[in-house]
Amino acid sequence: MGEFDLIARHFARPTPQALLGPGDDCALVQPSPGYELAVTTDMLVEGTHFLAGTDPRDLGWKTLAVNLSDLAAMGAKPRWVLLAGSLPAADEAWLAPFAEGFHACAQAFGVDLIGGDTTRGPLNLCVTAMGEVPAGQALRRSGACLHDDIWISGHVGLANLGLHQLLGQLELPQRWQRLCIKRLQAPQPRIALGLALRSLAHAAIDISDGLLADLGHVARASGLQARVVLNQLPHLPEGVARAEALDALLAGGDDYELCFTAPTSQRLALGCTAADLDLPLWRIGYMDAASPVGDVLLLGPDEEVIEWSRQGYDHFSA
Amino acid sequence: MGEFDLIARHFARPTPQALLGPGDDCALVQPSPGYELAVTTDMLVEGTHFLAGTDPRDLGWKTLAVNLSDLAAMGAKPRWVLLAGSLPAADEAWLAPFAEGFHACAQAFGVDLIGGDTTRGPLNLCVTAMGEVPAGQALRRSGACLHDDIWISGHVGLANLGLHQLLGQLELPQRWQRLCIKRLQAPQPRIALGLALRSLAHAAIDISDGLLADLGHVARASGLQARVVLNQLPHLPEGVARAEALDALLAGGDDYELCFTAPTSQRLALGCTAADLDLPLWRIGYMDAASPVGDVLLLGPDEEVIEWSRQGYDHFSA
């Protein structure tokens, strides 16, 4: 079976949102008038972003989910995606469940796979995702305002605990194991939250590298200081060493929850949003104008600054 | 130097065509009303698409050029591109000339690099390119009509000869060596030709896998048979064995010239276009309704069918 047949067989699905889907030199789409197009690309490499032997169905889901998460962080509605992949072999036993996981995520969030490229090489998966947002309403990292609350969604840190469990660096209580590994391997892009935040938040980012590191991007882009209050952080999982759980929460990454800032006047509305989406939202701190701007401070019970060493994942700083 | 600094330093350029360039979760662009968006993605892997040790400046150019070539084949005007790359190391001596070559191509064809991703792993470069075409005017593979002429641009086959020279499988005459290697390593996407063809051609494709293979895609998509007439092919390079030169022309690929079909009534106009662009255009055959449709036949001087074995490059059929 040749390259083209392989692609056709496992990845071809109807593309009702496109004028022309896969199979030509380009796909053709018709962007909606009055909307801006949000575009993002993410590359996943075996050994860097996922462990060798990761279940291909989970990997298919995650490959798309991490890209949709970037759209969520802009408040964009996902519409079209492209997938380029380099594979060591045309192994159908791997390709079939991978495509199944990818399409499950595409269907869950209403996107069409409109194009791609398949080639031979070390396992590498690269998705480009496009979404739409009404002109002027995109949530930028630079939009945070003085005195904004800082919020996070969901249960940040679980994915990192799952990774440590898989690597044998940690033994989680039985009840946490499956859950944390699931969060690592099949994260949920917070699309519905992103759409709701268009009218509520000033700035947003998805937590991929670690809460403090990603919040630092918001602080720097906005020219403010971010202050995270230890006492306001979500409860840490029971039965896990506190230092490790806190480290996972603050620096773990890979959860793809959203971190956003909103004016204090939106607290009521955000409480309703949390209930409406059945998704916990935690108010964990506030934006300040103190120097040095761009920093993220962690404040203890007496407003003292707690030193924190890890600042998230940098692929080249090891 | 961390990941983010590396990217900022070598890839950040002004992005006048974007509302928001690199550095946020997504880039934001405003598509032109009344236009369709053409989108394509191509992944280049060391050892599969380019030789280890390829000059990084050439590679930067080519990485973008092969994607712009897909836009050219749709008649789209290139506007925005994203670059995702996996690199074995954060080697500035490689990254700087690579970025230089990439941006030289971006500038030559008027596109903004609006986003990307950099990670550690085996060398892999993935570009997504977006262009615009007036609604309904895109050149699809499926648009060829009965009795259309088949045309190709430029000097198809030189890139493949250059590859064989580099691999030591062929010794080209001195005067051809540099030229053929240049065509392989720094191809010219035929953007101006693609724009001109919007109103002249029925179907187009870029020649990346080989003339006969790529023309086969047009024939299949259009439900016709493509007939290439040996006597109408461009002159083969002097001083190269005829069999090898013909093989490079018919099956070599990697030239990124355009192959297109147009009604016979456009011959005069296409002659003018060739002169206007200073780019040779060769009328090499015609579309027929004979069975089996989807085939590409090579016809000899007496209209006899010449058997031809190679049908272009398939990454997984080796």
Any overview of this molecule?
The structure is a homodimer of 318-residue chains. By secondary structure, chain A is an alpha+beta fold. In chain A, 33% of the residues lie in helices and 25% in strands. The first copy, chain A, contains 9 helices and 12 strands. Chain A has helices spanning 3-11, 56-74, 92-108, 158-166, 174-185, 191-197, 211-222, 242-251, 267-277, and strands spanning 27-29, 35-45, 77-87, 112-120, 124-134, 149-153, 203-206, 225-229, 258-262, 281-288, 296-299, 305-306. Chain A has a 7-stranded mixed beta sheet. Chain A has a 4-stranded mixed beta sheet with strand order 2-5-3-4. The termini of chain A are far apart. The model of chain A has no long low-confidence stretch (mean pLDDT 92). Strand 2 (35-45) of chain A pairs antiparallel with strand 1 (27-29) of chain B.
Oligomer: homodimer
CATH architectural category of the largest domain in chain A: Alpha-Beta Complex
Find the biggest chain interface: A-B, 71 and 72 residues
Q: Give helix and strand order of chain A, one letter per element, not per position.
A: HEEHEHEEEHHHEHEHEHEEE
> What percent of residues of chain A adopt helix (DSSP H or I)?
25-40%
CATH class membership of the largest domain in chain A: Alpha Beta
Strand order in the sheet with the most strands of chain A:
7-9-6-10-8-11-12
Distance between the termini of chain A: 41 Å
- Strand segment count of chain A: 12
